[in-house]
Each structure stands twice: as C-alpha cells, then as structure tokens.
Specification:
192 residues; mainly beta; 8-stranded antiparallel beta barrel; 10 strands; elongated
Length: 192
C-alpha cells in the first residue's frame, strides 16, 4: 500500500510539473542524448530477496516528428541482495542473497502528447552479468519497460529528463518461475 501511494504521488507530481513547465526550446530535429541515474524498488516475488536497485543509463532520442522519437537505451542495474535468516526448532540459518547485475539494452518510442510530458515504451534484452551466482540456465532475457516522464528545459539545448517506469524481464531459468526481474524505477537524467 505504501509503494502504491508513493508511486501515485510521484505520477501526480510529474503531471503537475509538466503542466506548469514552459514549452521546450530545444531543436526537435536533432538527436537528443541523455545520461542518467536509475533507482528502483523490486516488485512481486523478486521483492523477497531484494529491496532496491541502483544503476545508470545512456539514451538517444532520434526524432521522427516533433512529438515522436525513437529511443535507444543501454544501462546497468545492480539489485542489492539481502541477508535472510530462517530458523527451525534447532538452529538459525543465514543466507546471503547475491546481488543481481543486469545490463539492459532497449529500443522503443517516446511520444509527447503535450509539451514536456511524455509516454515511452521500450523493449529489448537484459543480460545477466553474474549468471554463475545463480542456478539459471540463461544469461539473456526479454525486457520491456513502459514509462511516463517530464523533460525540464534548463537552457536552449539542455534539459533534465525525469521519468518513472515499470521494468520486467522474462525468466532467466527454464525451471524456476521466480527467476524474473521486475521493479518500479525512477530515472533522472541530464540531456543535451
């Protein structure tokens, strides 16, 4: 419930900021680049052993029209594993859950229905860089990420890009259903 309230508050804040923002003054005929910080909270069964992630990404927005862009995005995400304790009648067992290191590479579309506010959808491949730490038989999975966000102009050519997304992968193991990685994430980037 707390996560739902936080996500709702963030979406409303982004929508309000986009409404009050000035129209972009950047040239929409140029490819736009951004470099950002990514953070998030795992969801579903993935939340059992992981509580947050941190990473970074680089993105190119290639104009199709003044409101529509093709996006290409590559990044790195580290999901921090927890220390889990389980006990039975005779002993307590401590398990260190290993971090998950992912390299997602995605492409998609970014659409601006109104000035500065965008809707984005991307899909691609997520590479598990530390497959040997798990019982997975795959090191690559399909990844998809719907996102909404706002771009704040800071000069004639530079901007801040802030977005919230849900990102999920297919299974990294053909035998374990819980080998999916999914999270709600935030990206704050500097664009030029």
């Amino acid at each position: 419930m707390k996560n739902t309230l936080k996500i709702t508050a963030l979406v409303l804040a982004l929508a309000g900021l986009s409404y009050g923002a000035k129209a972009q003054t950047t040239n929409s005929n140029k490819v736009k680049y951004s470099i950002g910080v990514d953070a998030g909270v795992p969801t579903g069964n993935f939340n059992d052993g992981y509580k947050w992630n941190l990473g970074g990404s680089a993105q190119a927005d290639i104009p199709v029209t003044s409101q529509l862009f093709v996006t290409v995005n590559a990044g790195y995400n580290n999901f921090f594993g927890e220390t889990l304790n389980s006990s039975n009648s005779s002993s307590v067992t401590t398990v260190e859950v290993p971090d998950v290191h992912l390299l997602p590479v995605k492409a998609g579309l970014k659409f601006f229905p109104v000035a500065n506010f965008y809707i984005q959808g991307e899909a691609g491949a997520a590479f598990l860089l530390n497959k040997s730490d798990f019982f997975n038989d795959k090191s690559t999975a399909f990844v998809y990420a719907p996102q909404i966000g706002v771009q704040f102009p800071v000069s004639a050519t530079n901007f801040i890009d802030a977005g919230i997304r849900y990102e999920a992968t297919t299974k990294y193991s053909s035998t374990f259903d819980n080998s999916k990685v999914n999270f709600v994430g935030v990206r704050v980037a500097y664009g030029f």
